[in-house]
Amino acid sequence: MVSADAALLFRRSFGDDPDVVASSAGRANLIGEHVDYVGGPVLPIAIDTRTAVAVRLRTSGESRAVSLQDAGLVRTFDTSLRARTGAWTDYIAGITRALEVNGVEIAAIDVAVASDVPVGSGLSSSAALMVAAASAISHATEQPTQPLVCAGLALRAEREFVGVPCGMMDQWASALGREGHALHLECATGATQQVPFSDAVLIVHSGVERNLGDSPYSARVSDCAEALLGLRQVVPHIDFLAQASEAQVRSAPMSERARKRALHVVGETARVREAVAAMLAGKGFPGELLTATHASLRDLFECSTPDLDWLAETAAAMDGVRGARLTGAGWGGCVMVLGDAAALPGVATRLARDYGRRTGRVVRSWISKASGGLALDLTHVGNRH
Ligand code: GLA
User: Fold this and answer.
1) Which residues make Cβ contacts (< 8 Å) with residue 32, sequence separation at least 6?
2) Cα(244)–Cα(242) distance, rounded to whole angstroms?
3) Distance (Å) from CA 327 to ligand 1 centroid
4) Looking at the structure, do residues 194 and 57 belong to the same domain, yes or no?
5) For the chain, is the Cβ count within 10 Å smaller at the N or the C terminus?
6) Mutation test of ligand 1: which of 170, 265, 272 has the most ligand atoms closer than 8 Å to its C-beta?
7) 295 in a structural domain
8) Half-sphere exposure of residue 115: CA atoms within 13 angstroms, side-chain side
9) 3-state SS, residue 88
10) Mind giving me the DSSP string for 26-44?
11) Is residue 298 part of a domain?
């Protein structure tokens, strides 16, 4: 659907067909929040909202980009940019820069983007855009890149070009997600395992958008770095904060703020392992872990908001619900609810009504299942030769 929209937008804006259209998925994280950048395990799913990128290479001139989420306006940008400009085209320029570092030179390109992943919602709109762009552009250069490599390029672009010190979860989930599976990713080693997961998931948007770059995300990354330094005084060879035990965190010298963050990491790491073990044993996802994660994000990691707390607590108390929590980085964005498939539409309606009355905001929600990640939707490359 979004792929056809991107191809159409491309034709309308640039008067010709794209060479390639690739699309990639938004993600919801089942469990393992704020542990990817400290070497912990995560368990996201790719969801069925996607971003498609249509691309055609040009041999010279300015590069052009157009997006339906930017009112269909054609913007120009430079593929050889070394620093961000603040425009959304940075996400594309970040990818061309990352490809160039890998030895793939791109003189100029035209790009059209269509997406139904809401921006600033904690569903990884930027990872979906950059993973799809990495795949589409590399295919257009006839040096097709595997999904895992696209995830790596997108991560590098997000960290080094866009400037967000994020972990690897979003890019890996967007690229490697598989229908009917959650992705168990060990961020210390990059090891992955597809874990069967066929439940429906309700995602409810709080109506508060946030941009990671403007949020306290970097401050939390620094708190965790401080905690690791303190831990090294009692456990000299520890590589990652997620390897620490609760007793070590309690005894190591660090500020009380860093200790709270570290205690979240220790508890969250254990919860991910418990969830994976239960799912692999065929017991399903233990919903109560979601509630425990939400409490830890609220009290120890301090990345929730009163609105997210209200949504998660209200949902968790409803019939047919097994657990609910904020998903993604926090400070706005979405709550994820697990429960009986038959109950979720009613839960969505009641949450929208009561939250709307409380805040005056219009709630958007989606019921999704674990879906496929990166896909090549159309290519004319090769046919032209
Ligand atoms: C954002 C980041 C991820 C991860 C989550 C929190 O989505 O991009 O790398 O840190 O926040 O779990």
Assistant:
1) 40, 41, 42, 43, 44, 169, 268, 269, 271, 272
2) 6
3) 9
4) yes
5) C
6) 170
7) no
8) 28
9) coil
10) EEEEEE-TT-GGGT-EEEE
11) no
The binding-site residues of ligand 1, defined as CB within 6 angstroms of any ligand atom, are 33-34, 36-37, 166-167, 169-170, 212, 328-329
**Token digits of residue 126:** 């930027």
pLDDT in tens, 37-87: 999 999 999 999 999 999 999 999 999 999 999 999 999 999 988 889 999
Per-residue pLDDT tens over the stretch 79-90: 988 889 999 999
Tell me the backbone φ, ψ of residue 216, rounded to 5 degrees.
Answer: -75, 15
CATH of the domain at 345: 3.30.70.3170
Place of tokens 């697990």: 338
Using alpha carbons only, what angle is made at residue 312 by residues 311 and 318, rounded to the nearest 5 degrees?
90
Model pTM score: 0.96
Nearest by Cα to 24 from 140, 148, 120, 109: 148
Q: Are 364 and 118 in contact (CB under 8 A)?
A: yes
Give the domain extent around 346.
199-211+303-368
The answer to whether residues 278 and 364 belong to one domain is: no
Residue 229 and residue 203 in one domain: no
233 domain-assigned:
yes
Answer whether residue 277 shows pLDDT above 80.
Answer: yes
Q: What is the mean pLDDT of residues 192-209?
A: 96
- The residues that bridge with 67 in the sheet, in sequence order, are 113
Return the closest-CA partner of residue 248 out of 237, 271, 188.
237
Say which CATH number the domain at 67 has: 3.30.230.10
> Over 60: is that where the pLDDT of 385 sits?
no
Going by pLDDT thresholds of 50, 70 and 90, the confidence category of residue 121 is confident
Can you tell me whether residue 364 is helix, strand or coil? coil
Q: Whose CA is nearest to atom 8 of ligand 1?
A: 166
pLDDT tens column, 132-190:
999 999 999 998 889 999 999 999 999 999 999 999 999 999 999 999 999 999 999 99
Banded pLDDT at 382 (limits 50, 70, 90)? low
DSSP conformation letters of 116-128? -SPTTSSS-HHHH
* DSSP calls for 169-204: HHHHHHHH--TTEEEEEETTTTEEEEEE----EEEE
24 pLDDT higher than 60: yes
170 carries an active-site annotation: yes
